[in-house]
Design goal:
Strand content: 25-35%
Shape: globular
Number of helices: 6
Distance between the termini: 16 Å
Order of helices and strands: EHEHEEEEEHEHEHEHEEEE
Largest sheet: 6 strands, mixed
Helix content: 10-25%
Radius of gyration: 17 Å
Structural class: alpha+beta
CATH topology: Deoxyribonuclease I, Chain A
CATH architecture: 4-Layer Sandwich
Strand order of the largest sheet: 3-4-2-1-14-13
CATH class: Alpha Beta
C-alpha cells in the first residue's frame, strides 16, 4: 500500500496539480494539508472522478486537512485532537483505511517566536504527543502523516545556522519531536535514507527550489506494529517544479502486504 502526505497549499487553486499527481503516481491513500477551503468548498466531485473517496475537515482561508483513498472508504475515527487547544483550527483528521489507522495532521507553524503563535504551537504539540501515545498503546498499525513544521536535525535544513531562531527549528520544538518519536514511532523517510540530505519544502522566494535550499518538514511516522512492513519511502521532488505547484512536494511510503490479515 502506498501512503502519501502532501501539503497542497490551497486545494482549489492547486487542483490541476493535485489531480495530475494522483493520476501519474497513483497513491493508495493521501493525507492533504492546507486545504484553505471551508467544508462546503472542498472539490469532492473532482476527487471522486479521479477515483478517490475522501473525508475532510475544512476551514475558510486557512489550515484544513483531508484523507483520500482509492483502496476503500475512509472510516473516520476522529477530527481534531482530544481537548484541542483551539477547535476553530482544522488541523487533525483520522480514519481507518484498509487495515491501517491514518492520522493526518498540520502542526502549527509557530512564528514569530517568541509569542502567542509559538505558545500555541507548543500546546498543540503536547496534545499531539499525548494522543500519539494513546495510539501506540492500542497496538494497531498507525501512520502519523503530515506537515509537522519541524526540521528534526541539522541534516533536515539548508544552512541550519540561519534557522536558529525560527519556530520550525527551535530547540524546544525539536525536543518535542524527539519525544514523540521516542514513543516508538519510526521516521519512515529517515529510516530508508539515513545519511542523505532530503527536503520536502522549498520556499517560493530566492529560487529556493532551483538552489535546493529546502527543508524536511513533512513526515510519515509508523507505529511499532506497522514499521516492519516499510519497504520504501521517497519524495516526489519533481512535482515541486511543476507549474503553479505547492511549495511542498508529496512524500510517500510503500508498505508490504499485511500477512497476518485474513
Amino acid at each position: 500500500m502506498k501512503i502519501a502526505t502532501y501539503n497542497v497549499n490551497g486545494i482549489n487553486g492547486r487542483l490541476p496539480v493535485l489531480l495530475r499527481w494522483l493520476a501519474e503516481r497513483e497513491p493508495d491513500v493521501v493525507c492533504l494539508q492546507e486545504l484553505k477551503a471551508p467544508q462546503d468548498k472542498f472539490p469532492h466531485a473532482a476527487i471522486e472522478a479521479a477515483g478517490y473517496q475522501a473525508i475532510w475537515h475544512g476551514q475558510k482561508s486557512w489550515n484544513g486537512v483531508a484523507i483520500l483513498s482509492r483502496v476503500g472508504t475512509p472510516v473516520e475515527t476522529r477530527r481534531g485532537l482530544p481537548d484541542d487547544p483551539d477547535e476553530s483550527q482544522s488541523r487533525y483528521i483520522e480514519a481507518a483505511v484498509n487495515g491501517v489507522l491514518i492520522a493526518g495532521l498540520y502542526l502549527p507553524n509557530g512564528n514569530p517566536r517568541p509569542g502567542p503563535k509559538f505558545d500555541y504551537k507548543m500546546r498543540w504539540f503536547e496534545h499531539l504527543i499525548r494522543h500519539a501515545q494513546d495510539l501506540i498503546d492500542t497496538g494497531i498499525p498507525v501512520v502519523l502523516a503530515g506537515d509537522f513544521n519541524v526540521m528534526p536535525t541539522e541534516r533536515d535544513v539548508y544552512k541550519p545556522e540561519r534557522w536558529q531562531d525560527d519556530a520550525l527549528f527551535a530547540p524546544e520544538v525539536r525536543a518535542a519531536f524527539a519525544r514523540l518519536v521516542a514513543q516508538g514511532w519510526t521516521d519512515a523517510l529517515r529510516t530508508i535514507h539515513p545519511d542523505e540530505t532530503i527536503f520536502t519544502f522549498w520556499d517560493y522566494f530566492r529560487n529556493a527550489y532551483g538552489r535546493d535550499a529546502g527543508l524536511r518538514i513533512d513526515h510519515l511516522l509508523l507505529s511499532p506494529s506497522l514499521a516492519p512492513r516499510l519497504r520504501d519511502a521517497r519524495v516526489d521532488r519533481d512535482v515541486r517544479g511543476w507549474e503553479k505547484s505547492s511549495d511542498h512536494a508529496p512524500v510517500w511510503i510503500d508498505l508490504a502486504p499485511d500477512k497476518t490479515r485474513r
